[in-house]
Amino acid sequence: WWLIAALLTFATAASAETIGFSQVGAENEWRTAFSADMKAEAKARGINLLFDDAQGSLDRQFAAVGRFIAEHVDAIIIAPVVVTGWTPVLKEAQAAHIPVFIADRSVDADPSLFVARIGNDTNLEGRLAAAWLAQASRGRCAIVELRGTPGSAPAIGRRTGFAAVIAQFPAMRIIRSESGNFTEESGQRVMTDFIVSTDRLKGVCAVWSHNDTMLIGAIKAMKAAGLRPGKDILTISVDGVPDIYRAMLAGDANASVEVKSDIGKYTFDVVQGYLHGRRDYPKWVVIPTDLHTPQDAAQMLERRYGP
Ligand code: GYE
Description:
This protein is of the alpha/beta class and 307 residues long. It is 46% helix and 21% strand.
């Protein structure tokens, strides 16, 4: 019997997949929730996950992917910091016959260099945000914009989508726009500058932030200046993290476009399906998105993160 047991152990060990995952960093609550979900999902599926946190550095990402290739992993998942620069490293993986999957953010590279991207529609997020604001402001609004990390897919897509919709409304315009790098501190700092440079947001009707976390920082800056976000200044942001629902319930925020962070299941379904022989995946496996307001903030908090 020990022979059978030994063979069984060997068979299970041999079938456990080793998958490398190069993650952007840990810049905010959305990102850390995504990392935690990927780890939990890999564990539940018996995947040996090699996790690398690039701390926002593209060079660190390239180095991590290089290591995964050298270690002959079964597959590589990349959540790219920025869209550019990926061709050489993707070609290296292809030459080593290791399939690559792009998760969350997109890349600007020949699609034949990766199997599929599993991720959200950042342009749609920008359009949804602008459509909400057009309604809430009746199409008249001077906007300050907090942008995400320069060169990152969500900063590009959200800005473009938002701009396309407000272009339909002659009385809606962006009067200030600055990057807050998707972090709370930068969001707070940039908003403090906006408050000074616009004489305490005089005439400003809304803050549009490429993510919730920067807006949380901006809310702090506005409150510190005696302004009333969520009341005198409309807010609209993206992600749907717990803190934004709490801010909505406190009356400090008005709306957020949800981007799911528990996307490990979507990602590993595709990666494992591919490793087991499925070949009919589209290049883009879309993760759906929707918009939430104080009306359903309590439900959202409960649904996603427990009481
Ligand atoms: O919105 C932001 C994070 O790529 C969708 O990155 C993601 C974005 C998310 O830093 O909070």
